[in-house]
Structures are given as C-alpha cells and as structure tokens.
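Escalation from tier 1.

The customer reports that the assembly of two entities below gives different structure tokens on two consecutive runs. Tier 1 could not reproduce it. I'm attaching the input and our single run for tier 2 to review.
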Amino acid sequence: MKWLRFFRCTREDEEVSREIAAYIEIETDQNIARGMNPEEARFAALRKLGSTRRIREEVHQMNSLGFLETLWQDLKYAVRMLRKAPGFTAVAVLTLALGIGANTAIFSIVNAVFLRSLPFPHANRIFVVRRAGNQFGGASISMPIYLAWQRDASMFEHLGLIRWRLDASLAGTGASEHIHSALVSSEFLPAVGVQAAIGRNFRTDEDRPGAERVVIISDDLWRNRFGGDPNIVGREITLEGEGYTIVGILPRGLEIPIPAIRGAQILFPLQIPATSQDPSNSGMLAIGLLKQGASPAQAAAALTPALAQLRAQFPSMFMVNEKAELTPLRELLRDWAGRAPLLLFGAAGLVLLIACANVANLSLARSTTRQREIAIRVAIGAGRRRIARQLLTESILLALLGGLLGVLAGYTTFHLVLGLIPADADMPHVGAYQIDGTVLGFSLVLSLATGILFGFAPAIGASRVDLNAALQETGPRAGSGHRARLRQALAISEIAISVVLLIGAALALESFASLVHVQPGFDASSVMTAEFSLPSKQYDTPEKPIAFIDEGIRRLAALPSAESAAMIDTLPLREGSDDLFSIEGRPENPKEVLGAEIREVSPGLFHTLRIPLVRGRGFSDADTANSPPVLIINQTMARAYWPNGDALGQHIWVGKPMGPKYTEPSAREIVGIVSDFHETSLSQPAWPTMFRPASQSERAGWGYFLVRSERPGAISAAAVRGALLKLEPANPPTEIGSMEQAVTASLVDWRFRAILLSIFGGLALFIATIGVYGVISYSVAQRSHEIGIRMALGAERRDVLGLVLGVGARLTLVGVALGICGTLALTRLMSGLLYGIKEVQSAMLYGVKATDPVTFTATSLLLLAVALLASYVPARRAMRVDPMVALRYE
Amino acid sequence: MPKRGTQPLEGELLQGTLDMLILQTLLLGPAHGHTIAYAIERRSDDVLQVEHGSLYPALHRLEARGWISSFWGTSENNRKARYYRLTKFGRSQLTAQTGRWDQLVRAINRILQPVSE
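Tier 1 run:
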C-alpha cells in the first residue's frame, strides 16, 4: 500500500494542489460574501492558509517513505559515480563476481547435501535401520535380521528393504541395453512416501519368491526408451532374458538420494522369503518410516533383542553387544558426502574474503581521490551520516552487480563443476544440485553482506573527512597516514588468506600427484578391460558361465597382437567383496573372526597384470571344478594370519564362520602367495586378499575380461567388443576401457578436490595480485613528490626501484608470515577440534604432511615472486618520475 | 534544514487534539476541509482557532491511518471539493481518544483544583 503510494507521489501531489485550490475558492467566495472585492478576497484567503507549498511538502513527506526516497536518490547518484569510473567499477565487479560465483556454485552443493529438504514427505520420520557394534558385517544387514525386524517393527508405518543390483540388460531391437537397476521390497516406496505417477507401487505379495515378475520403471526410461507411451503399464518387457510386466512409472524428476539405488531406472521387487538361513550381508539397507510420535530410541530398543536371538543361531556373525540403531536418512547422506563439500565451501568463502578486502582497498583508494567531492558535499550541507550512507549504497550496488554477474557466471560454469563431481563419488544427490531459490537467496544475502563488509571502512573513513584540509589541498595527496596503513593491512590480509588457500591447493595437488605415482602393484599399461554380465536364466548351471569365460579369454588372447587374457570378478581399485574363513587345525575364536577380500580369477590374471608370484604356484587350467580346491593369497594375508608360520600348504574353509550352509564343500589348499597390490584404492594399503579360481566357484556370471597387448594401444575397444559380441550377441560387454583409465578413475575424488582447490588458489592469487598492485601504485602516486625530491638530490633510478619493490616485499613478507601462522593454526583446529586428525588426513592428504615445509616454502616464494612482479609495474612508473615535474606540481 | 522531531510539547498536544476535533466534527456527517475548519471554530465559540494550513496535513494523516476516507464532491457553491467521512475504524478511535481525553482532563483538573482553592 505504502509502496504504491511511493510511486504514485506525483498524482497525490496534484490531488493536494486541487484540494487547496478548492479551499481558496470557497474561502474567497465567502470573503466576497462578507463584502470584500474579489482581488482582496482572494488575497485574504491565501493569507489565511499560509504557504501552499509548505502544506504540499508536508503532506508529501507524510505520505512517502523518506527512507526509500533517499535510497532512490543515493542509487541514482551511485550509478552516476560508478559510470564515471568504469575501470574501478569493472575491476571491482569482476573481483566480486569471481568470489560470489565461486560461493554460489559450491553453496548449491552444500545446499543439496546439507540443507535442502529431502524429496520425501515426512522426511524427518525416515530412518535407516542399521546394526551397530559389528565390525565385520559393518552396518548393513542380512535377510534373517530384516525378517526378525519386520516382525518387531510395530513402531514403524513401513519398514522397507533395498539392495544394490547390477545393471539389467533390457532387450530391444538389436543388441540389448544395460540399464541401472535396483531391488526394493514392496514396503520401500511407501516408507519414503513415493507413489508411482502412473500405475501403482509393488503390492505386498509381489516381493515374495515365486511371485509374478513385475518392475517399476523411472520416468526417464519411460520417456526415452518407450516414447512416453501412456499405455505402458501392463506391457511386458524382456529383462535379463525374461519377461517382466511394467506395473508403474515413478514420478518425474524423482531423485532418490540413497547411493544403493540412486539413478536406478528399473526397480525390481526385492524378494523377501518367509524364512532365511542366509546370514551374509549382501549390501542391503533397511529404511523405515517411523510412526507419528514414536521415538527412534524406542524403536531401536524394540529391534535390538532380535539380534541377540540371531546370535544364538549364527554365533560368529553377531557380536555380543550388537544393537539396532536408527539413523535419520539425512544424517546418513551427510556422512556419505563426507567433509569435502564443507572444505570446498570454506575455501570458496576465503576467496570471497580476499575479494572483499580487494574491493575495500580499491574503494579506499578511490575515496581518497573523491575527498574533494565529498568535502564539497559536506560544505553545502550534507550530513556525515548521509555521506557514509551514500558511499555504503555505492558499495552495495557494486556488490549486487558483482553478485548478479557471479550468479550468471556460476550458472554457466555450474555444469562444469558438476562435471568434476565423479558420478560414483561419495556425494549423494548428484544431479539434484541445482540453482534454486535457496541458492539465489544465499547469493543475494552474500552480496549484500559483502557490500556492507567492504563498504564499511571506506564509508567511515570518508565521512570523517577534514573539511578544511580537503578543500584547501590540491590533488590526491590529501590521504592521511591512517588510511594508507589501513590499505596496507588489507593487502597484507589478502596475501595471508591467499597463502592459506594456496597451501591447501598445493597439498591437495601433491596428494593427487603422489597417488598418481603410487605403484599399484600391477602393470596397468597395455591392458584393456571389458565388463560382462550374463543372464542367470540362460546360464543356469555353474558350468555354462565357466565355459563362457574360458571361451572369452581364448578369443581375446587370439586377437592380433594380444599377449595374454584373463578374467577377474572385480577390477582392482574398486570395492570388491570380502568373506569370512577359518583355518583348518586352528580353533575358532568367537572374538576374532578371520576375514579377507576375496576375488575370483582366471589362471592368467597374475601374468596379465604382471603381479609377481612370490612363492608356490599360480593357477592353471588343471584347476577345475573336479580337481582339489585351491587358493592363492597375497603377502599381507600371509603375514597377518601366519605371522610365525608358513601359509603355503595350509588349508582354509571359506565361509565357515557363517554357518554350514555357507561353508564351501571342502577346505582349500593355499598353493601360492602373490605379491601385494592395491585391491581397493591407491590411498589404502593392501588388504589381506584371497584369490579363488573362477572355475572352482559357483557364481561367476559377471566380471571383467582383461587383455594385454604387445604394445600400448595395439588392441582397440572395438576389437575387444567385436571379439566378445560374436561370442554372446544378446549380451554385449557393458564397459570397455583400459586398465589405466580404471586406475585414473579410482582417483577421481582426489582429482576433483585438487582441481577445485587449485581453481580457488588461483583465484586468490589473482585477486591478491591486483590488491598488491593497487596498493603499490597508490603509494607511488602518493610519493611521486618525495621520489622527485630524492631524484633531484641524486638518487639513482635503481634506488627508486629498490624503494618501491621494498614496500611490496615488506607487505608480502608480513602477509606470508601471517598466512603460514594461520595455516598452521587452521590445520591444528581442523585436525584437533573438528575431526579426528587421522581420519581427515587420510581422507584428504596422501604422501604429504599437512605441515610439509617444502610446500610452505614453495608457496611463500611463489607469492613473493608474484607480489614483486605486481610491484614492478608501478615501480617502473616511479623510475620515470621527472623530478622537475614532480616538484613543480606543488 | 529544519530538524524533525524537535517540536515543542505544546505542538504535539495540539496536533493530537486537532485529530480528535476533526473526527468529532465528521461524526455529524461528511464535510470538506473548509467546512471542518469553520465548524471547529464555531462550535468552540471561536476559542479554538484552527490554523488552516495545518488542517490539510492532519486530514491526510488521518486518511493514511484509515480513520477517515475521502471523496470528491460538490460544495454548497457548486464548487468541486474533497469531502472527508469518518470510517468505522475512525469512529472507534474517536471513542478511545475521547475517553483518554476525558481522563486527561480529569487528571489535570484534580491537580489544578487544590491550587485554585
């Protein structure tokens, strides 16, 4: 209402004028009636009313918002002033845009991971139910646990179960497509409050073994693969060689931010048997919707007794004090995302801080040259508060412009940043990051705060202008020593913060570089990989996949210039499976269950990857399903479990601690020990690992072929595909690449951090350089008189150069010293207070200490060099000062 | 530059009183500014002289508060004039203000009486 009136003020004023005119006419009429002549009557009426202008002004002021009016004036003035100084405006807006843009981009990630509400109704009642206190099974659960919990889940509205699943091959015309899929129990979608947009959710009888084969597909798949056919529900599609009926389509844009099923295009019912004797944890996650008013602690207490009962049944699979634990889904997602988003957010914040310091610096320099203008305004009656407010308005306008540009730049580079986020990184929600209202609001608030932050010092400084001095003095030399010191302090803090960021970036880069140079323990060069996955329907006996693998290896090895070929179920440097075992002749100790990574391999694997055999023998084609079961272990496993004895020739029972059903039919003899290599990650040491011949295994329906060529690049991906396609036309290999790519891909998290931190470090360096340049230029301009005198008195140009560079060097050295102190304090704070020191350092740093002296020294030297370069340009200007001109200037 | 907010207490008191008098006048029916001013003067037997210049700001203030509303009408002499009318809200405000005024007058009288005795 009042706003409207503000814009309507001209019309209002007209109304008042008309009203006053009406008054005067009425009064004049009456005066005439009293006997005055018309002219006299009108004059008396006017006199009676007083100044009409004053009345109008009074009414006007009453009706408009004085604040807004002033703001509008200030804004108009600010725009004029900024346009008069295009250079300053451009540099300031650009600097701020860099800072705000970086923050917007990173905040959108922080927002998605930490702030934005989950895309589920009742998100605060959705909990992940896990087991706590079991170091072997970790937090995931097994089918018997789920069945027991389902029985005790009276506090839940729904308790669903989900499970990670391999890609499903969807048959169509031509070769089949591999589509990301997941398994969910019928209660999962109700638990997270998702209802199929078309069709229906799974019925409770559809997740039983032997139920009809049904699937729910994503909106994406429906649109892209089935052309958005509205009659899709009820149609049968062929998945894994079997017919499935589509019963529902998920809502459009639904992103389920749970790693196991994120991005799944097809949901299969997860079959829940009536009873289960399978105590192994196969990556299942229980997700429940708590009833209104039920407390998580109560629910957990109700689920805990089941674990104790199961322990009686499977003694080695459950620990004594195991408990059920309810974790809010949101909290779990945060844990999965790790600290990286916060670290990057902190770094982006520091960049913005530097940008602020820099613009404050520029504004201070400008306000010095503007002193006369300000002094004149004060002299003709502007209040000091009014001046300060005017300057602050200018700062905020600058910041808003910078923010606008920053958001635009952020928006365009946003996908670039997203592209850096590894698709299978620990961060959930990938793809759900977006610039939404919260992010825009954040940028707006950030811009305003920035404007106030960097505008404050110049505004206060300028409003304290000494009128007499400013009006009398000529030129820009009126600046006080106080202001010069403030500017130096700002430049110093820019350098100090840059040091912190650059050291962080350098440490991340060094970690990445040392990881790149880590010897993985195998030779990845010249090795191509191809993933395969066989439909269990056609490969229904253990012999069939084994025959497929043998034939695949044979065909690959027969490729021109192929040297050898092999198969492994999980590529090195990716998470594989582990298993429990017991050693024959060694009593089982319930407190210490033995476990190790387990890989299924073909005989040629160690040769193909050049993994040296340390002792014993490798696998051979003679190791078949009918020959004695054998096993090869790595050195770490030999050291860990046979510290004093010889592992070779020992027999172990794989799966025995899990109960008779999971125990292999006979013990395996350890026939060989291979050299250690990094199985799961380059940053982790080798784990105890056992290798089992694929020919002696029951589940070998999927895995990777590896083929080594005589020279790098001699075998193309097309050649590999061609060889395997002929073998199994309906199921082409899914992922063909080189082993080197796989090694690089395993470092993608590290690369992401290193790249982003380097970008921030680079930005910081760039902005700080501008800052140093600005301060030095200013000091040269200010001292040109003094320099002129010095030169007139016989100073050489070299001396002048030294004088100016000395100022730059002093600033930089102080800044660097402060920055190093700050970095040390920050490392201490980060590692000591916030997180466990080892956890952070092993997750963020590799092969370099957080206080690495070489990094610190190199960073300091870099900054010093750049700062001297930035001082050199104004120094040259100082050298060219003509003493006569400088002296006459007075 | 005239400084705001430093008017003497007398002015403040008068201003509030003027509002109340305007409202009271409008209780009898809609009127334009000129009529209101003269009505107040006549009804107070010319004791209260309304400063006509301050009348219009007061009217606009009251309108902004929603206590009175205005419309353009025709005066007795067939001239266009802006008429003011008491709103429902204004009516309740008048009651409240009159009550407070009575209280104030009684309080002041109580203080003044012993002195005059």
